Amino acid sequence: MAEVEEVRNKQVLLGDYVNGFPKETDMFLSTKTIQLKVPEGSRAVLVKNLYLSCDPYMRNRMTKPDGEPSIGDSFKPGSTITGYGVAKVLDSGDPDFKTGDLVWGITGWEEYSLIDTKHESLFKIHHTDIPLSFYTGILGMPGMTAYAGFYEVCSPKRGENVLISAASGGVGQLVGQFAKLMGCYVVGSAGSKEKVDLLKNKLGFDEAFNYKEEHDLDAALKRYFPRGIDIYFENVGGKMLDAVLLNMRPHGRIAACGMISQYNLPQPEGVHNLFCLITNRIRMQGFVVFDYFHLYPRFLEFVLPNIRQGKIVYVEDKAVGLESAPAALAGLFSGRNVGKQVVVVARG
Amino acid sequence: MAEVEEVRNKQVLLGDYVNGFPKETDMFLSTKTIQLKVPEGSRAVLVKNLYLSCDPYMRNRMTKPDGEPSIGDSFKPGSTITGYGVAKVLDSGDPDFKTGDLVWGITGWEEYSLIDTKHESLFKIHHTDIPLSFYTGILGMPGMTAYAGFYEVCSPKRGENVLISAASGGVGQLVGQFAKLMGCYVVGSAGSKEKVDLLKNKLGFDEAFNYKEEHDLDAALKRYFPRGIDIYFENVGGKMLDAVLLNMRPHGRIAACGMISQYNLPQPEGVHNLFCLITNRIRMQGFVVFDYFHLYPRFLEFVLPNIRQGKIVYVEDKAVGLESAPAALAGLFSGRNVGKQVVVVARG
């Protein structure tokens, strides 16, 4: 039998389950070795990871399971973090993939991963004129989230008034641009002056505000939406949702995508204004992108020309090196990132 | 000019705006006189009121307006309470109605009312083999509410698991029976043993429980819905909603019809488990029956044969005499009524 090359494989592992805000030190680096070959008879795919995606939903996978509904299983303490990423196939036991293919999908937070394609769907990357890192964002899970959330859940109509929270994030910045393409009036909420400037000057939002500087969110919303909100794309939950409920127009829609303001609290905040759902006949609908991945080909047809023609832009915040991944993920929850948070593991 | 007959007209008026639970003494009786003739040139309709409907939404009209969204304007202190009722036309300036017609719609809490049909839609009663009082309930606004809420908002499917709160009330008892006709598993929550017995023994619910005897609503729901809830018909809000959110099945639906547990609180309770909307892809939709009255003819075609064949029954709680109306309305909020609360003003 031929000797199989074995290399060092740096990894990011979860320490213990996380309470409260995740810290860089909740994760740790470790090095194992890995054979750069798929085991004999396996249908798995061995990849070299290039870009990793930091996404808010990952916080929920760091919590000790408590039997309540959750999206995805919790990571196990001492095991490798997993998440969306872009990778290059080094070896494949799956006839759908071959050495040299570029792919995106769920991979490990490590230099090399052996991916079981029976359990995790990998998407082959066919369009490489676009930056590869975009497949962690606009062309990956966050892009599909924005697309499905806006077009499938929000039922948007031309000229409607749209509010997006966490608006400069990996999903929010796209929802705003999709809404502008539809001729909507679009306002974004974000957590710093830099993000507000980005929304207004680079991402084409009509208005944006820093929620941290608004003592009265209800008053802020009334200022930006004197006639009320038709569509709220919900990424934050809590106080913002409560204020939004007071400002929805009749027959408005709330697409509940995430509630990042709540993930690190011991108990979620109470939302008091739900009766407004009735008075204004509001539809509030939670959704998870997994249910919409069958739309991915249609999404690419829509979004690729828009990217190539510069009609949609995408702002990334790149942390370089696997070592920087724990701080990059933790930083999502203090709002440190400006734009979609990506970790560059290798350039190719 | 002929002398026009003038008679005494007993009325129920609102005292001051109501804070907290409404009391019988928040309303008062007064007597005026009224001419039993429509004023010359007016297109109004003069009616003798027969049955008045006590409905939870009326509580919200007793609150001082605060600029927040509401259903219908507030009653003015010192003015006659208005609400749904059944009446007989004594005189009409509207060519669509003639003396002797029976009608249902918004009328005054008084013996005789002059109704402006330009602003309030009156429905003519064509089927009098059914008890007339039913037009305040199953054949009136609550019936339409149950019909639209269940069939149009809940998107029910055969065999689904359905929970209804305030289940023995004017709307809830119908939703449960509609769901049973569709082959659903139906559980009702109510506030007394008598109501629980009614749900199980007369209204055909599969199960029912007294929420006042459940210290842990989450545990109670897990007992009745070990596999989770597909449809929640929401009449109460607050703690029940919070517990339900933990027990919804993927792609479940919540039709938000009312939140009676919240109407008398200085501030609505906080609802903490909204993140479950996302994890389980729940659609929560508020609705108001006014948007569905165009379906009334279709509703009658559906419900009348079911009533006549005894496949749907309707439980009323009748208070006799206009004097009893204030206590009957206040009683809704302590759960005193068993079944739909009606006030009998006159028998014909």
From TrEMBL, chains A, B:
Record keywords: Oxidoreductase
Gene3D superfamilies given in the database record: Medium-chain alcohol dehydrogenases, catalytic domain, NAD(P)-binding Rossmann-like Domain
GO MF terms here are:
oxidoreductase activity, acting on the CH-CH group of donors, NAD or NADP as acceptor; zinc ion binding
Could you confirm whether the keyword Oxidoreductase appears in this record?
yes
InterPro entries per record: ADH-like_C, ADH_N_2, ER, GroES-like_sf, MDR_fam, NAD(P)-bd_dom_sf, Quin_OxRdtase/zeta-crystal_CS
According to the lineage, what is the superkingdom? Eukaryota
Is Oxidoreductase one of the keywords?
Answer: yes
Q: Which residues form the Enoyl reductase (ER) domain?
A: 45-343
List the protein's name.
Enoyl reductase (ER) domain-containing protein
Q: Which organism is it from?
A: Nelumbo nucifera
